[in-house]
Amino acid sequence: MVSVVSAEHRVNAERAIEQESVLDALLREREGLLGTLDRVVALHGTARLIRDTIGVDAAFIADLDNSDRAVIRWLAGNKTNSLQNLAVPRGQGVGGTVLALGRPMQVSDYVQSSAITHQFDEQVSGEGISAILAVPIIDPFASKIVAVAYAAMRTSARFGDDAVGRMETIASQAAKALHVAGQVESTRDRAVSAERQRMQANLHDSVGAMLFSIGAQVRDLHTAVTDNPGLTTRLTRLEQEVSAASIALRESLLALSESTPERALPVELAEHCRSFEARSGVPARFVQLGDLRPLDAERTSLLVSVVREGLLNVEKHTQAYYVVVSLSATDDGVQVVVADDGRPDPTDEPVMSCGMGVRALSERAARLGGRVSLVRDEDGGTTLRAWLPGVEKRATA
């Protein structure tokens, strides 16, 4: 009997150890995934990875805060804070030269090098650094530099081809991690914005309507009561409190609606697709292709109007089975497309090709330097397309 129990205990113990090992592996995978999805963790981890992989004394990452300047924010192996938050403009020092040229650069003795400018000699010397290798971290999808990675030695040295190659590999991995982190952040922001809009609508429809009803009833009572000073005073106070509550509600709704236009646009277009699908029964999907440049309110409003008009045309004039709304950034602007697979009624052809709504949108787009077109596809569907130049292009025109 004892041997049976002992055997059972051994099996349970082995199973517990096995399960613990699986759990540890899952936790490590979770930590790795969270590191990839978080920009700060990814960049800080890249600095540590450079130091450990290349075998250098220190490593640091400069994040771009605009296209012409990087700021050193993440360090590994540093002894002082002399480089922390150091702003490096394009063309200055090693990192600024990498920004300007878009390729790796190294110096064996920073302070003595004639290949760079020397605005940062004091900070570099303060950290005791001599040799530096810097490579650009380039977003593979946008083909632009998003950060600069540095490897540093405290003695004069030259980095060989193998070290440069490993640095470029690490930079490539970091670029992919940053892209994923950016997509996750964008998705999270859109989800938050959508939730804010839902809350705003609920508050407006419920609390706003309730306050309006209470206020109307109080005003009616106030008008009807003429011979009761005490009640009149209380009604006056209640009317003032309802008015104050209404003002506070309007301020709350305004705060909930605050969002940058380029973030609000995808959320609003997705909402229009959901609304169209709910009332028509036709599946409508919204797809965003890439990140958007900043848009002003006028462009945002026009693009929303184009999608609204396109969905209305589908609802009124076609027998569509599916609708896709896409929003994408182009090299010189932004465009939206509303495409369906329906077959318009031949009697609606004049309406579909040159309706008042489409003509009005075309005129608005033309004033901004853009264009709107509505065409029938070869397979019988229709496509409404609007393109607008970017804000920067229009400003320099």
Topology:
Layout: H1 2-37, H2 39-55, E1 58-66, E2 69-76, E3 87-89, H3 93-101, E4 105-107, H4 121-127, E5 131-139, E6 144-153, H5 161-224, H6 229-257, H7 261-280, E7 284-289, H8 297-317, E8 323-330, E9 333-340, H9 349-354, H10 356-367, E10 371-376, E11 382-389, H11 391-396
Q: Can you put this structure into words, describing what you see?
A:
The chain is an alpha+beta fold. The longest helix is centred in the middle third of the chain and has 64 residues, at 161-224. Helix content is 57%, strand content 20%. The model is unreliable at 1-5, 26-37, 348-354 and 392-397 (pLDDT under 50). The protein has 11 helices and 11 strands. Helix 2 packs antiparallel against helix 5, helix 5 (161-224) packs antiparallel against helix 6 (229-257) and helix 5 packs across helix 7 (261-280). It comes from Actinokineospora alba. InterPro entries: GAF, GAF-like_dom_sf, HATPase_C_sf, HATPase_dom, Sensor_HK_TwoCompSys, Sig_transdc_His_kin_sub3_dim/P. GO terms for molecular function: phosphorelay sensor kinase activity; protein dimerization activity.
